[in-house]
Design goal:
The chain has a domain at about 1-50 and about 115-125. Helix content is about 35%, strand content about 10%. It has helices at about 5-10, 20-30, 50, 75-85, 100-115, 130-135, and strands spanning about 10-15, 35-40, 120-125. The longest helix is centred in the N-terminal third of the chain and has 13 residues, at about 20-30.
Length: about 140
Amino acid sequence: MDTHDAATAPIAIIGGGVSGALTAYHLIRQNPKVRVVVVDPGTSPGLGLAYATPSYRHLLNVPAGKISALRDEPDHFLTWLRANHDPHAEPMMAQPKTFAPRAVFGRYIQSLLASVSGIGYLRAKVVDLNSRETERY
């Protein structure tokens, strides 16, 4: 495979929850030429079961100031949370600490997906993989 093929060969990510969504997001950030397709039977990419809850009573088990989708920006979620949900959200060291709703963290992940282009979504359930088809990539 030459570098031209590497830039155009699609990468399929099976599962569109937070892990799959963040994998797609970071692949695109590292190389905007890469083509990524997230395959998931759900209707809301980036949420998965854990963050699809509509209840604001279901909280993260990590303080808002200690979680971020961007390793090089440890306050990224806290900054986003203050701008988009709770302007009084407190970092980890503050008392009381802010534990954000899981639904809000899901919206944060979805906002990251919306900030990049090049991610395709295929609403489907993967039940099999033909290894001969993948060899050409």
